[in-house]
Amino acid sequence: MPDRIIEIASPARLGVRDNQLVIARQGFPEAVAPVADLAALVLAHPAIVLSHAVPARLAEAGALTIFCDHAFRPVAMALPLASNSVQTERMAAQAELSGERRGRLWQQIVRAKITAQSALLEDLHGGDGGLAALAPRVQPGDRGNAEARAAQRYWRRLFAEPAFRRHAAMWPQNRHLNYGYMALRAATARAICAAGLHPSLGLRHHNRYDPFSLAADLMEPFRTIVDRQVAARLVTHPPDEEFGRDLRAWLLAPLAGRYVHGGEDRSLFDWLARAAQSLAAAVAGRRRLPDLPVPLAPCPDSAPPLPTAQCG
Predict the structure, then answer these.
(1) Closest by alpha carbon to 33, among 60, 2, 75?
(2) What CA–CA distances, in Å, run from 234 to 53, 76, 111, 146, 151?
(3) For the purposes of burial, counting CB atoms within 10 Å of the CB of 297, is it exposed (0-12), middle (13-18) or buried (19 or more)?
(4) Do residues 199 and 193 lie in contact, with contact meaning Cβ atoms separated by under 8 Å?
(5) What region does 308 belong to: left with phi over 0, alpha with psi -120 to 50, or beta?
(6) Using one digit for the tens of pLDDT, what is the confidence trace for 176-235?
(7) C-beta separation of 114 from 131 below 8 A
(8) What backbone torsions phi and psi does residue 307 show, to the nearest 5 degrees?
């Protein structure tokens, strides 16, 4: 599966020629990249001009086009929506899921998320704060709010900051996390569409203004991939460093990485595709619960995947 990510964050003109994405920037040689190699194109500058063929051709190839505002926050995504031959059947089953069934599926996702958080804390700090014991106690629909209780323990240990709070503007780590999650969410939405599900019909997330609620659900166990990358960055860089090209490339890099689970070495896009296909099978009633391949550990034999997460 293609796993190359390109971010454009300066004035540029984009087009497609001979199945190649063509990037023209003043003062630089023209750059090209095969459309078939792209997993995502991130556009993060108001002076980018592109032809209709760019998002259309990328969608045909199964790739994403992500549009960001001046603060590198995503404001829109172009996704392939006709990439599965039984899409209509699966979306109908998805829309008709009972509340009990949704609760069981969400229970599995939360358990996988807490298990992944536990594994990351063990790996980085030698202890998980009791998260591993909390995961089996997650109830259908997470009625006991185990996800929130795990988060209280997880965040203060991850960054060794007892006062750290997610979504609080005073903590610059949140900007790092949000940018990485943006890319992860887009990649998850891509896998969901390829599996024939609709990204806006969520299990737990139901924001009426969010067209990617299911992606927000399914990405939960994979968030630790971004968390690990942010934590690694803070070992050698201050949290309030300039949000420049090098930092953004670092935050995008995990999406182009390879990860080991159950003795298998696969790209993140492959693992997301497997999770989405498994969820689709559970939605269709062909299996009781989805198989979520987490926790994931970076492949020890591969170098940091920075070269495939390009920023310009």
Answers:
(1) 2
(2) 39, 29, 27, 28, 20
(3) middle
(4) yes
(5) alpha
(6) 999 999 889 888 988 888 888 888 888 886 555 466 789 999 999 999 999 999 999 999
(7) yes
(8) -60, -25
The CA-atom distances, in angstroms, between 226 and each of 29, 45, 116 are 33, 23, 12
CA distance 73 to 4: 20
**Cβ partners under 8 Å of residue 144, min gap 6:** 137, 138
Place of tokens 């750059």: 31
Whether the Cβ atoms of residue 266 and residue 291 lie closer than 8 Å to each other: no
Q: What is the pTM of this model?
A: 0.82
Q: Are strands 264-267 and 258-261 parallel, antiparallel or unpaired?
A: antiparallel
Residue 243's region, left for phi above 0, alpha for psi from -120 to 50, else beta, is: beta
Q: How far apart (Å, rounded) are the C-alpha atoms in residues 14 and 25? A: 9
d(CA 75, CA 5): 18
